[in-house]
Amino acid sequence: MSVKAKTGQGCHILAKPNGPVCNLGCKYCFYLEKRELYPEKNNFLMPDGVLEKFVKEYIQSQNIPEIQFVWQGGEPLLAGISFYQKVIGFQQKHMGDKKIVNSMQTNGILLNNEWCAFLKDNGFLVGLSLDGPEEIHDRYRLDLGNNPTHAKVINALELLRKYEIPFNVLVCVTRQSCEYPDRIYAHLKELGVQYIQFTPIVERYPDEEAEKLGLNHSSPGIKTGTAPLVTDYSVLPEEYGDFLISVFEEWVRNDVGNLYIMNFEWALESWMGLPSTICIYSKQCGRALAVEHNGDIYSCDHFVFPEYRLGNLLETPLSALTESPAQTDFGKKKEQTLSSACRQCDVRFACNGECPRLRFVPLQGSSGEYVNYLCGAYKKYFRHIHRYMKAMVQLIQNGKPASWIMDVIEGPVIITKD
User: Fold this and answer.
1) Does pTM surpass 0.90?
2) What span, in angstroms and rounded, lies between the C-alpha atoms of 411 and 156?
3) 307 φψ region: left (φ > 0), alpha (ψ -120 to 50), beta (else)
4) Which sequence positions are flagged as catalytic?
5) Whole-number percent of the chain with pLDDT over 90
6) Which of 352, 382, 343, 337 is nearest to 220 (CA)?
7) What's the pLDDT tens digit per position in 332-355?
């Protein structure tokens, strides 16, 4: 994702088949408000003409053997099975000798036998949103009638398992759920979840420009000092660091090789000296874009604001947008704007300043430099796991499974407060 297509690796475009439309009203969601960017719209379903042009040019613009389509929202299931039947048809029409893989990120509420049969028959991978046990999940993940959704998500999980559809679970971590790492992890283990990703929620209240657009969150380009503070559901850095460490300590002692937690897999990549497979930890970004329902292309899923709109694929070839000077500059700025503190940091190799959208905290003693809001969390977390990661790398380099780490760990769990 972090290298241009012409080098043999492709870009990644997150598709929004029905824009920001969703059947939930999750209080921390940053994407529901994107309706305000299209005030004239009532129907957000991607038209056939946009869909086929996206599918065709996305495949043809990438010099790689496997093309990964990821469908997200809003809620992508709202587009209906007939929409994805068209997706499969267009992919088969334009795929040539390339392999196509489809993934979908869903809240699971609409999953039923018909949907699961379709997803299974067409080889879809599924990401399911589940924030933890009922009382934690239902704090923010409510439907449009303000009703809880945990039971429905559990039903969706069981259906995915019944139809043997490969899935992972995406856990959004809020300020409140940060207090319960053990309960969340235990719940996922009880459910038999094998693949997990933790995503910290960090959003800021709107600045003046965002308010003019009717948005509830600040633009990533606005720095602290000109925009209000983070929302009350956003994680606090210290607590998020402790959350990751608590889960890691349980995982590294009991579950390595059985449960795959992407946050820890990404860290291991860094300790092995491999290029990051996720944009937030890459030296540069710009290879993970978003396409809206009408064909608008944005620099990133988290940068769907007017100033980051590259153009529309109905007007400009997709490859020209993904390789445009504006997008190239966007990607390079991640490394170019890295603060002096980050450049000298001992965990830079694992973090690389994380996502630019969160670099809004002024660096003390500097003029015009900013650091990532989660800097304190990552320093604490990466430094804590260092000895474990070194041991796992040594095991792998010697042809042994990383899971052997569980047999050599000594000493009690120690989580220090900075």
Assistant:
1) yes
2) 40
3) alpha
4) 301
5) 87
6) 337
7) 999 999 999 999 999 999 999 999
